[in-house]
Amino acid sequence: MYDSILLPTDGSQRMNAVVEQAVGLASLCDARLHVLHVVDERAYLSVPDDARDRVRETLTEDGNAATKSAAERAVERDLEVVRELRWGDPAAAILSYAVENGVDVIVMGTHGRSGYERYLLGSVAERVVRTAPIPVLTVAVGDTEEQTAAILGTRVEELLRDESA
Asked: Which of 72, 112, 163, 165 stands 20 to 30 A from 128 (CA)?
């Protein structure tokens, strides 16, 4: 079904579930896994000139560590892995990479932000989902138990309101 899977990663511990989904899917499909880290250049541009080289080096090291960690998990399952680090707008870089490399599906995390956080911070996953010419599998990251409880709590409140009406 899928020969080529893209896993964009920010390297955080919360990405474990996303990495597992991507590696599991690649294993099921015997697919090549592309692991991509994108450094958001917009944040880098605000760094003072005298610290730029040091910050660039640190961000590059962090990105390489992020892709290496995810790639090692794929290699443990005997998967073919490609790693890449890019600079730029994360959503645009993810989509460009996917198209340039003939990726069949993107597996990425979503932080589940809403309200003002989503408005202020934007959502890379949302932008990718809305504009990708290929399927995108999103995996919730963070406290999924808390998210589930909130959903169930909302549903219970809705049922109670409906019964009393």
From this structure: 72
